[in-house]
Amino acid sequence: MAKLLVKQVRSKINCPLTQKRGLEALGLRRMGQVVEHDSNPAILGMINKVKHLVSVEEVK
Fold first, then answer.
1. Would you state the pLDDT for residue 23?
2. Separation of alpha carbons 18 and 50, rounded Å
3. Which of 55, 57, 52, 56 is nearest to 16 (CA)?
4. Distance between CA atoms of residues 11 and 37, nearest Å
5. Could you say which of 22, 36, 48, 52 is the most buried, measured as most Cβ atoms within 10 Å of its Cβ?
6. How far apart are CA 36 and CA 3, in angstroms?
7. Domain that includes residue 33, residue range
8. Which residue intervals define the domain Large ribosomal subunit protein uL30-like ferredoxin-like fold in the entry (predicted)?
9. What is the sign of the dihedral through the CA atoms of 41, 46, 52 and 57?
10. What is the band of 5 on the pLDDT scale with cuts at 50, 70, 90?
11. Backbone phi and psi for residue 52, each to the nearest 5 degrees, phi listed first
12. What's the rounded Cα separation, in Å, for the pair 14 and 28?
């Protein structure tokens, strides 16, 4: 299974509550923080909700 590196690149200030909760569910608490997740439908769905706030890289 592929791994994804998710980095928060934009602030969650002034975002809807659902997007703030999506960032917290991904484990992102502050700008510039990077977390690693397995690529599965649940994680991809969370990333899709906040795609304008994060950058995603695939790790091999």
1. 97
2. 9
3. 52
4. 21
5. 22
6. 7
7. 1-57
8. 4-54
9. negative
10. very high
11. -80, -10
12. 16
